[in-house]
Amino acid sequence: MKILANDGLVEEGIQYLHKEGFEVDTVKRDIDDLIGDIKDFDALLVRSATKVTREVIEAGTKNGGKLKVVGRGGVGTDNIDLVAARENGVIVKFAPNGNTNATAEHALGLMLGVARKVPFAHATLKGGTWHKKRFQGVELMGKTLGIIGCGRIGQALAAKAKALGMKVVGYDVYRKMDSDVEYLDTVDDVLKASDFLSLHTGGRETLIGARELKLMKDTAFLVNASRGVNVDEEALYDALKSGVIAGAALDTYRKEPKREGEPFANKLMELDNVVFSAHLGASTRNAMRRTGLEIAEVVSKYLRLGDFTQSVNAGQTVEEEGREIYTIFITHEDKPGMFGKFGTAFGEMGVNIRENNSRKLNDHVQTVYVVHQKPTPEVCQRIGEIEGVKRVAY
Fold it and tell me: Does residue 128 belong to any structural domain of this protein?
């Protein structure tokens, strides 16, 4: 099978795929060449640069095209047409874990930077002027960190903040049982309690606007290393200029340059209580390596084993589809035609197969069918009558 890594892939990821028996092409295609060539590849790996449009997906699947899976190195899938992928039988997978530590560390670094005014002191000293009193800061120890979005990155940041002596509160729809976060009931509760507020969710609508900023302490700092759309920048500008909050540290923006070296303009640059970085959350050599290996592994497992782990446009497990499911356990001989006979019997009995897993047990095989209809004695009797079946249970 052939894999196109159109935005490149770390050498360790390439070596892993070669070891698994795949041919890897890392030659960058522009959109026209990609549309022309994608039909010859079983998988397409991208980061944020390549736009996987409907036209690309259809070119990869129609008229005998081989495309089966698209892998996104990282978290966001805004550059992939998920609807077109679903319609054309292409699974989209992502690699969310590789950049978790890097982003959490960067958020913590932004907090330290804005609290101790390090970037401002650095710029002044480089300009040839010595200032100390002007840059008196605040410590993190003993302060309360509020986290909105307590997933992988939020949890990693919470652990680091606790180690610095901070109290950590947060809000998330899903509450992790074993967590360093003390969950509060509403976002507003987190806003009111926080000395530092860090955002690790969203991306579709504004989370922090004028109303939310007014709920925060006038000594509080806002950190956004998640999505630029999370923050109403006009409201933040007014809040920072009028002293509604003390400062902000930003790594993402509503409008960002598309290419390296392009100009960047933002009204917030007028203020001296904002720390900026250029969407660097995941930009470490370590994160690039981990993410490259992760996406190589999950795509390989889908192509080799049909594994749906870390799928974005399909359920990772059958349970996620939201339908009632049941299991039937069959011990049988390991010989050709057994699965075909089971499928025929289930179909004739009106039982829809959703998934099946099978493993060798000495001279027999144990197969577990996941089905949508509740098993009945009649179904099990029919399966048990098939030559080669030793036992049926449900």
Answer: yes
The rounded distance, in Å, linking the Cα atoms of 250 and 198 is 10
* Number of domains present in the structure of the chain: 3
Q: Are residues 158 and 257 in the same domain?
A: yes
Task: Give me the mean pLDDT over the 348-358 stretch.
Answer: 92
CATH number of the domain where residue 219 is located: 3.40.50.720
Residues 263 and 117 placed together within one structural domain of the fold: yes
Over 70: is that where the pLDDT of 203 sits? no
Domain match, 37 and 132 both: no
What's the rounded mean pLDDT across residues 159-176? 96
Residues in the chain: 394
Q: Give domain status of residue 313, yes or no.
A: no
Q: What is the pLDDT of residues 53-80, one digit of tens each?
A: 999 999 999 999 999 999 999 887 889 9
Query: For the whole model, what pTM was predicted?
Result: 0.78
**Nearest 5°: CA angle at 384, between 379 and 390?**
145
Do 82 and 123 fall into the same domain? no
CATH number at residue 335: 3.30.70.260
Q: What is the arithmetic mean of pLDDT over 168-178?
A: 93
Does 260 lie in the same domain as 145?
A: yes
Per the CB < 8 A criterion, the answer to whether 60 and 84 are in contact is no
Q: Give per-residue burial for 296-321: e unless 16+ CB within 10 Å, then b.
A: bbbbbbbbeeebbebbbbbeeeeeee
Q: Mind listing the pLDDT tens digit for each residue in 106-153?
A: 999 999 999 999 999 999 999 999 999 999 999 999 999 999 999 999
User: Which residues are the active-site residues?
Assistant: 227, 256, 279
Task: Assess whether pLDDT exceeds 70 at residue 348.
Answer: yes
Query: Hey, which residues does 332 pair with through a beta bridge?
Result: 365, 389
Contacts of 33 (CB under 8 A, 6+ apart): none
Whether residue 42 is contained in a domain is answered as yes
Domain range for 93 is: 2-98+286-305
Q: Are 110 and 250 found together in one domain? A: yes
CA–CA separation, 155 and 162 (whole Å): 11
Kindly state the tokens that stand for 244: 């509604």
Q: Identify whether residues 335 and 370 lie together within a single domain.
A: yes
